[in-house]
Amino acid sequence: MYRAPVDEIAFTLKHVTGFGADLDAGRFGDLSEDLVDAIIGEAGRFASEEIAPLAKVGDEKGAVLKDGTVTTPQGWADLYRRWCEGGWNGLAAPEEFGGQGLPTLLSVATMEMWNSGSMAFAIGPTLTIGAIEALEKHATPELQKTYLEKLVSGEWMGTMNLTEPQAGSDLNALKARAEPVGDGTYRIFGQKIFITYGEQDFTDNIVHLVLARLPDAPAGTKGISLFLVPKYLVHENGTLGERNDVFCASMEHKLGIHASPTCTMIYGDGKFGETPGAVGWLIGEENRGLACMFTMMNNARLAVGMQGVGIAEAATQKAMSYAQERRQGRAAGAPKDGGMSPIAEHPDIKRTLLTMKAETQMARAITYACGYAIDRARLGEGDEAKAWQARADILTPMAKAFSTDVGVEVASLGLQVHGGMGYVEETGAAALYRDARIAPIYEGTNGIQAIDLVMRKLPLEGGEAVAALIKELRADQKAAHAASSLGKTGERLAAALDDLEAATGFMTEALSNGQVNEALAGATPYLRLFSLVIGVAFNARAACGNENSGHAALVRFMAENLLGETGALRQRVTEGAASLDAAADALLSV
Amino acid sequence: MYRAPVDEIAFTLKHVTGFGADLDAGRFGDLSEDLVDAIIGEAGRFASEEIAPLAKVGDEKGAVLKDGTVTTPQGWADLYRRWCEGGWNGLAAPEEFGGQGLPTLLSVATMEMWNSGSMAFAIGPTLTIGAIEALEKHATPELQKTYLEKLVSGEWMGTMNLTEPQAGSDLNALKARAEPVGDGTYRIFGQKIFITYGEQDFTDNIVHLVLARLPDAPAGTKGISLFLVPKYLVHENGTLGERNDVFCASMEHKLGIHASPTCTMIYGDGKFGETPGAVGWLIGEENRGLACMFTMMNNARLAVGMQGVGIAEAATQKAMSYAQERRQGRAAGAPKDGGMSPIAEHPDIKRTLLTMKAETQMARAITYACGYAIDRARLGEGDEAKAWQARADILTPMAKAFSTDVGVEVASLGLQVHGGMGYVEETGAAALYRDARIAPIYEGTNGIQAIDLVMRKLPLEGGEAVAALIKELRADQKAAHAASSLGKTGERLAAALDDLEAATGFMTEALSNGQVNEALAGATPYLRLFSLVIGVAFNARAACGNENSGHAALVRFMAENLLGETGALRQRVTEGAASLDAAADALLSV
């Protein structure tokens, strides 16, 4: 059973990022290290003791749709209620609306734990957090007054409605429409698919944020507006009124996260109310809906990255515990009369378990650094804030894509460690392998993250933002070189940084020469290359200033066993496109 | 829907291996190229038109156990009957017992197609093929007379019973026992788990091959004997008699291959017959059961390798077909007024699809070369036969481990190409991802394959067998260097061969110095390194002598985009053990 790794989380929080020093310096106001530790500890307890025990019933029973009503598995609605009572839903939400106003970084750390407990559970509130952000930044005071407090307390949940059958990665093709009524409200019509927790039995009301087009809207993404569409209309006194004209028409039968209802939502079918059309309110400006949605989406991408970290941690723990119990064969060097050894003593299993631990910690470092950059951007001013925002922007696609790839890889390795028992559902290793697989897909596929990194993040501030990050990584490398506990980490990081700079140079030149296809062809290996370097360098940074022999040994393992991949990735980026084009012409033409 | 890639299969058969030249030279007797093509074509038709359409019901309904009886999904028993009528079960079986005596290589090629059609279906007959081999080589003429013809025709199926709860990878711990009755029969007692098709409704009788210990047997693997235990005893005239004392007590609830019943078998519980104990007959010599079982196991490992290739091919086709239909975004360079492009035109998706195609073809080359080596060993004499047997022995762990890792990787990439639809079970991409995951585990985990390669195969003939293979690969490299259609393949292969030789040298030295743990720590990366080089070199070989521009372009893609990984793998092998040990001491000690 999962036990939240509160020490590793606290260590990463404080030493991979500058958060520890900031707390000492009072940069986060009254927030003290003790309070941070207490929050992490209590979240760890809740995730381990309350969420994790309900993961299995969630997977086995799943959410059930009947007559438009979704029933979540036994105990789940109550779990959600207790989770909200703990104040977890509003952890980083504004105090004005009842939140605790704590740093995003703390929210990130707790999200890791909720996801380790159960990804199907954790994903629901994640959408609410996104809705809170969008309303806080873009909604009118009236809408804020009606909805924000209940979303922050968790009394109501929020959803994000983007995807339509013909419009997934490409929102240009979006068709849902909104007709202005003239009284400030709109009537929304259309079908949305893959809506997470689109219908559920946790809360009395559900606040749908829906992308749709106004009648006179320009084509493409510049003609998309964002609307708030509640399941039940809300009276002025805050009580619930009529059912709105939106319902869940079907639910997907998915590979994993079975307890998370993935709904097809129908707006404006005339099923409810006298006038057809779901009543909605505009959020932000007309035709600027995508910008509002991106507010949510960036943080949602980091949140999905936390799913990767959470699953990877849970899979690693499960595999380690199995490998320490299960005995097969006698390890070389084990006493002759000691019988069979725990499989954790066999070198090949050691390699597997350490690879799992190392990849998880690399993803943790990148995601936490991203959360920290978001906080610093919010706290800072002027150029400093801008620099931190750029850092967050650069790290976000890596936090999402690298971590979710790691989630899948580590869950797969964890299943493998269990041998035949891993393939049997009873063990739970297979459920992690199934759950993990959605994270590289939603909130922008990992391919789209890589494209985002190359096409939008590399050019930030004329390339200076990425250059500043690489300069920091070089400093980490130098420090690692001087650290005796880190073995060849300094040497390996130096080579990997050369690979990163060569690949970055290639990308920058390709973009400035208009060779877009060459750049795009290398986007995925580039993202992985960048992430590996950051994952090792940031962890090495933490190892340098702080005594933690386990962490130092893990960093050395990362550098000496995992980082070598950067050479091949660099080659794919800088020299891979020609053979890719030739093979695509020969083999992929329709 | 899957269409058997008969041209690629025929090309690989003939040109990756020496089979094409052998046919011309008459080395395979009357077997002509036309007949080979006809067999591949008809197998392709059967796999595409008869097996593949039943895969979905197999996955969705699965096999069902009730009161000790297993019911396979609707249509499956009839599918099996038609498959046997086609003569496929006895394709490579001895003519003396009704088989067609065709080369193992053809059996390998057809197995790929059965597995692409449905892995849950294909795995059943695979076990029968193993049982046929074991009986042919080790059973008494009486047992052969009673059982072989019916196993070859497919009227009865065979099973392999090794695993017990405490004895999986380590058969030393095996407990099932066999008591001699005195009349030449034995009574078998014990529990066996994970028995594939241990109970089914395809055939009237089931021939279980069971490992068990005689009363006076030495401890460990030198005290294990092999027994034939039929579900129903057989009268002298060949008709079925009494039910034997063996039954299926439960069936696993698995991640995938749902239609393949995975049974817990109980022997000698007294449930059937008057005297407790399942009646069994010794196969081969007492206490030499493991040697007999290894006869089956080596070929079973290659057969599992074919599951990897089969799944990878099916996943690649499914993803390519989806990517050519699904339109999202406009690819750079596409006409402005052409609307959204098929996603197959986006460079990142091209990379994914080509990686899938390339990895599949690399695994195909290794497995087919292994099948060919088995044939040459059987046909040859003296030193030649010995050399080919050593080649088969070396290739077997790579055929098993590399191909099944590829199966998982490619199925995962294929699911990713489908985006959100891939996560929905309806599409079938998720089913391939689930099915693929068992293959790296059973018939010896991939970790054990790597250990086998390093500990038992590297030392073959004092290292000369591996040296001879590497010499051949060097010749392939030289030829590739001279081939203008192969881009930088020659150059990249040269570097990769240097990596392979360095890693091989390290392993050889570690073993000769008694540094077993150092060698074992690098076994898995060493297997992958060796496999990548072979996969590219063997395919380059085929590309050099034959006009096939698609194949040449794919080889170039392999070399320029995938082969670069060998540098990191070499580093892991030659320098990875120290940090692995240090991290294991710090983090994995119980």
TrEMBL record, chains A, B:
Class of the enzyme per the UniProt entry, highest EC level = oxidoreductase
Record domain Acyl-CoA dehydrogenase/oxidase N-terminal: where: 39-155
Query: According to its UniProt record, what is one Pfam family this protein matches?
Result: Acyl-CoA_dh_C
Q: What is this protein called?
A: Acyl-CoA dehydrogenase
Domain named Acyl-CoA dehydrogenase/oxidase C-terminal is located at 287-455
Q: What is the lineage of its organism?
A: Bacteria, Pseudomonadati, Pseudomonadota, Alphaproteobacteria, Hyphomicrobiales
Alphabetical list of PANTHER family matching this protein: ACYL-COA DEHYDROGENASE (PTHR42803), BROAD-SPECIFICITY LINEAR ACYL-COA DEHYDROGENASE FADE5 (PTHR42803:SF1)
Q: Which GO terms describe its molecular function?
A: oxidoreductase activity
> Which intervals hold domain Acyl-CoA oxidase/dehydrogenase middle?
160-266
- Specify the species: Nitratireductor kimnyeongensis
Entry EC number(s): 1.3.8.-
User: Could you say which protein family the record assigns here?
Assistant: Belongs to the acyl-CoA dehydrogenase family.
The UniProt record lists the Acetyl-CoA dehydrogenase-like C-terminal domain at 472-580
Q: Which cofactor does it need?
A: FAD
**UniProt keywords, alphabetically:** FAD, Flavoprotein, Oxidoreductase
